[in-house]
# Entry
Amino acid sequence: MWPLLVLSILSLSTIIDRLWFWTNLLIKEKQTVARVLEAARRDWSIATEMARRTLKQPIGRFLYAPLRLQNPEPEVFKLALEAAADDELASMRKGDKLLEGVIALAPMLGLLGTVLGLIGSLGSIRLGDLGTSSTAGVTVGIGEALISTAAGLVVAIFSLVFYRLFQSLLFNQIKIFRKAGNELELLYRQYWQQVFLNNYNSPDKDTYFAASRVENSGKTPGTLELDKKPTDSAPETDVEQPPDRPNNM
# Structure
């Protein structure tokens, strides 16, 4: 019974702590998501500031993780969301391992106490005492031994109920994180595309692309001349001219 008492205290303290955590989270979570997403549709700097003010909440840290980056690419933005979601969901599982241990150990400890009690009660019976008044205390001992089994089952069932409750809340958080992250990523991709189109339509577009073509070619505009060999305007001939004939007249 003493180990069962220790397990029940640990289980009860964990349950109270998790109930307080989930109560505070569920009250403020929807408001935080709505405000940050609404601000992101108008101004990303305002959305970043609003997310920074809610860093005490898991959803606030989740939304602030990609917003604190300086103009990241959409893929980097998505990776920051996924990494933050993994960290926050892992922290929400705090206490689950303890409850799992209590659920597994409590019935076994109760059964162990019952078995030990039965061994002690039945070990004091002698064959000659069967059917006499000396065996009246045996039934009392067996009843007391069964109390440990009942206590272990009560502790395990009580812990299991809240464990399943916390698991359902965690699964709900996964859906909320996925939905909020997808909406924030979609808004950022639209913003990123708009910035790209503005740069593409800017007056310096031609200068930018001309510089890019020059860099990609690996040559400067002044190095494209062909080497030419100098040629003479009239070709030289090696044929010797005959001398003038003398005048015999």
Residues 12 and 208 are 66 Å apart (CA to CA). The first helix runs from residue 2 to 40. Residues 207-249 have pLDDT under 50 and may be disordered. The chain has one domain: 2-126+135-200.
